[in-house]
From TrEMBL:
Pfam families: DUF6691. It comes from Photobacterium galatheae. Keywords: Membrane, Transmembrane, Transmembrane helix. InterPro entries: DUF6691 (IPR046513). This is Transporter.
Length: 139
């Protein structure tokens, strides 16, 4: 049952990214280009996502002690802004700003057949593979 729910959640997430055009790198790059052809429409997408998450999170925290389809909630306890967090945020932002795609939309966009998306996903997976090495180097 958990795998079925994960599949449905992933399909819904991918459909939302597609409908909102978050899988379109040009749309994302226009959103990030505030001095050129700025397209503010993705603010509504991100704002809507934050509202849904915020309300859902507050509801779940107040009404449930465990997830419906899992053993426990995994809520981060580290509240320290450290070098790995800042470096990760900078790398994510640079990657997003350079190519207009981030991990979620990249995976949702794999079915497009775009070779650039496949290249991005391969590079992303390589980065994930070597993240332990990078983590040891910056600490």
């Amino acid at each position: 049952m958990q795998l079925f729910i994960a599949l449905i959640a992933g399909l819904l997430f991918g459909a939302g990214l597609t409908v909102s055009q978050m899988v379109n790198p040009d749309k994302v790059l226009n959103f990030l280009d505030i001095t050129g052809q700025w397209d503010p429409s993705l603010i509504l997408v991100m704002g809507g996502a934050l509202v849904v998450f915020g309300l859902g999170y507050q509801f779940l925290v107040k009404t449930r002690s465990t997830p419906v389809f899992g053993g426990e909630f995994f809520i981060p306890v580290n509240k320290v802004i450290d070098k790995p967090l800042v470096l990760g945020a900078v790398l994510f932002g640079l990657g997003w700003g350079l190519v207009g795609i981030c991990p979620g939309p990249a995976v949702a966009n794999l079915l497009s057949g775009n070779i650039k998306i496949f290249g991005f996903v391969v590079a992303m997976l390589a980065g994930m593979q070597f993240s332990g090495t990078i983590d040891r180097l910056i600490k």
